[in-house]
Amino acid sequence: MRKQLRDAFIVGLFAIMLGNPRASAQATAQKDSPPDVPDAIQAPAGEEVVVFAHASGSQIYTCQVAAGDRFSWTLKGPDAELHDRNDKVIGQHSAGPTWKLKDGSEVTAKAAAQVDSLDADSIPWLLLKVSSNAGKGMLSKVTSVQRVHTKGGKPPAEGCDASHRDAETKSSYSADYYFYAPAK
After folding, report:
1. What angle do CA 150, 156, 158 make, to 5 degrees?
2. Is-contact 58 78, C-beta < 8 A?
3. Collapsed DSSP state (helix, strand, coil) of residue 140
4. Strand, coil or helix: what is 40?
5. What is the Cβ-side half-sphere exposure of residue 69, based on CA atoms within 13 angstroms?
6. What 3 state SS string does 58-113 have?
7. pTM given for the model
8. Mean predicted lDDT score pLDDT of the chain
9. CB atoms within 10 A of CB 56
10. Contact 99, 179 (CB under 8 A)
11. pLDDT category of residue 30 using cuts at 50, 70 and 90
12. Residues 142 and 180 sit within 8 Å (Cβ to Cβ)
């Protein structure tokens, strides 16, 4: 008798979920959890992850005169595709820094804090504060962004001198971006 009740319950639950796509989507939807990061780049209290994106592309550097008439590679900006967890392209990451999704929403942000990457040959992990939002979509209410799990992206150690002034170079990189908005 107990087995029959359990089987009937499972069949009924399955039928409800199949008959109601919303129930099915809610049952399978998973919220992204914040990544494990040092305190310096923790998202502010009261914010939750609303979008996850994996970026792959380049960090673009320009050879510029720095302090003391020394030359160094200066970040011009990123040029990367943003992918969801199923590796579907969902947007673009460019100078600003700006993240623009295919749904028409975009954010521009400024670095608020950084920590060294766990990989010494990679660009730092960041906490960024959003300075502007545009469009309606998943990024419309985003207030903070984290860049973590970086691979590569550092400028070359040499090759920037007077004879290469204003030259550009690209450094391949990848990173995970977590976008935060106030919790509902």
Report:
1. 155
2. yes
3. coil
4. helix
5. 1
6. EEEEEEEECHHHCEEEEEEEEEEEEECCCCCEEEEEECCCEEEECCCCEEEEEEEE
7. 0.82
8. 87
9. 17
10. yes
11. low
12. yes
